[in-house]
Prior knowledge:
By secondary structure, this protein is α/β, with parallel strands linked by helices. It has helices at 19-27, 44-49, 65-77, 93-98, 117-126, 143-151, 184-193, 209-217, 234-246; strands at residues 5-8, 30-33, 37-41, 59-62, 87-90, 109-112, 131-137, 154-165, 178-181, 203-207, 222-226.
Amino acid sequence: MKVKTILVSQPEPIIENSPYFDLVEKQKVKIDFRSFIHVEGVSSKDVRAQKVDLSQYSAIILTSRNSVDHYFRIAEELRFKVPDTLKYFCQSEAVAYYLQKYVVYRKRKIYVGKRTFTELSPLIKKYKNESFLLPSSDQLKSEVPNVLNELGVNWKQATFYKTVVSDLSDLSDVSYDILVFFSPSGIKSLFENFPNFEQKNTRIAVFGNTTIQAATDQGLRIDIKAPTPETPSMTMALELYIKSVNSKK
């Protein structure tokens, strides 16, 4: 069956030159965006219940923009003045750049990884005598504690925000040719919102091994996978698939 409509389980890209918009133009398909999950901050009371005293940490590990937002939110709620001497270890350039929303970049000690958490580890190791705080969501990738434990540093994880299933009830009567997922949480949201979901002719596109596993566990048929050597991005995988099925008579 030809592909005409796609639902991507993420917010619409804010950049004008997103490859999704190129896909719409080149393949003449309709793409909608909708977050299947969203983030909610936990209260400062909940953070205190985790026995976290912000003043006890000389360094903070930031893995996402959410972790930046919610660290400074909790600091404000607790009336904690973030010291100028605090060291920031950011997983990527995007996270480090976002940090400028809260601090004067050039006046702070900021250390930036490349992309993955493992790539940040040499910088953390270099400052292994620091006391590290890792503000994160309630769903932390196993890679993170594994790396920190291997480094043997003094660190503590605390849940500052949670990943929550979004209400998708308005989509109950809407169907798409392809549903695109990027996390196990997205798959969970699909079945929490639509417990009787039947795949039928709907194609499922998934990104990453953990998402593939979550989809498989739910009995979904996976039609499109990324990343692969041939299609390192989801948009490339979608384009290859669409070209294949839409060219058939």
